[in-house]
UniProtKB/TrEMBL annotation:
Protein name: Transketolase N-terminal domain-containing protein
GO molecular function per UniProt: transketolase activity
PANTHER family referenced in this protein's UniProt entry, alphabetically: TRANSKETOLASE (PTHR43522), TRANSKETOLASE 1-RELATED (PTHR43522:SF2)
Domain Transketolase N-terminal: 1-194
Gene Ontology cellular component list: cytosol
GO BP annotations listed: pentose-phosphate shunt
Length: 203
C-alpha cells in the first residue's frame, strides 16, 4: 500500500542508529528509499516524515519521483501542497533537481551523503513516460495511462519509444559495457570492505 515503503525506510534508519549505538560504527550504513507522488500524500507518510525530522535521521536519503501524475489523474486535482516547505518544516534537508538528468542525480546524492544532521529529501522533478511516442510519432509524455500499465497498452508505441530514446527495441534492457565494468569494480571494493570488517569482528 502507498506509504508503506516510506515508513519502513524510517524504521530501518532508526534500527541502524540502534545497531551503531549497540555494536559500534562497523554497523553504520545509509538507508535509501524511493517514493512517488501518491505515496508522499498518504497520512502514514506524514507521520513518518515528522518522526525522521525530529530524530535527525541523517542516515536516511529519500528520493521523491515528482512527476505530478497519479494512477488516474494529475496531482493538481487532489493537492496544492508545497512538499519541499513541508519537509523543511519537519527538519529535513531538501534538494530539488531535474530528476531526468543523471548528472544532477549524482551531484544530489553526493551532497546528501555529506549531510551530518538531518534526513534528506531529494525531489526529482521528472516527466512521466519521458520519450514515449505514439505509432504516429507524436509525444505521449505526461499521460496518466502510462502510470500503471505497459506503454504499448497505454497508448504509446513500445518500439518507436525505445528508438526515440536511442535504444534498440530488440535489446531494450542492454547493460552498457562501461556500466558492467563499473559495478564489477564496486563489487570488488565491497568484498574487500566486508573482509576487513569480518576480521575486525574476529579480533
Amino acid at each position: 500500500p502507498l506509504g508503506q515503503g516510506h515508513t519502513m525506510a524510517v524504521g530501518a534508519a532508526i534500527a541502524e542508529r540502534f545497531l551503531v549505538a549497540r555494536f559500534g560504527d562497523w554497523m553504520a550504513h545509509t538507508i535509501y528509499t524511493f517514493v512517488s507522488d501518491g505515496a508522499i500524500q498518504e497520512e502514514i507518510s506524514q507521520g513518518a516524515g515528522r518522526i525522521a525530522g525530529f530524530l535527525g535521521l541523517n542516515n536516511l536519503i529519500m528520493f521523491y519521483d515528482s512527476n505530478d501524475i497519479q494512477l488516474s489523474t494529475g496531482t493538481d486535482a487532489v493537492t496544492r501542497e508545497n512538499t519541499a516547505k513541508k519537509y523543511e518544516a519537519w527538519g529535513w534537508k531538501v534538494i530539488t533537481i531535474n530528476g531526468n538528468d543523471p548528472d544532477q542525480i549524482r551531484k544530489a546524492l553526493k551532497k546528501a551523503n555529506r549531510e551530518k544532521e538531518k534526513p534528506i529529501l531529494i525531489i526529482g522533478k521528472t516527466i512521466m513516460g519521458k520519450g514515449c511516442v505514439t505509432e504516429e510519432g507524436k509525444s505521449y509524455e505526461k499521460q496518466s495511462a502510462t502510470h500503471g500499465m505497459p506503454i504499448s497498452q497505454a497508448g504509446a508505441s513500445f518500439e518507436k519509444s525505445i528508438k526515440n530514446l536511442g535504444g534498440n527495441p530488440e535489446d531494450p534492457f542492454a547493460i552498457f559495457p562501461e556500466v558492467q565494468l563499473y559495478y564489477e569494480k564496486i563489487l570488488e571494493e565491497k568484498r574487500k570492505i566486508a573482509a576487513v570488517r569480518k576480521q575486525k569482528q574476529k579480533d
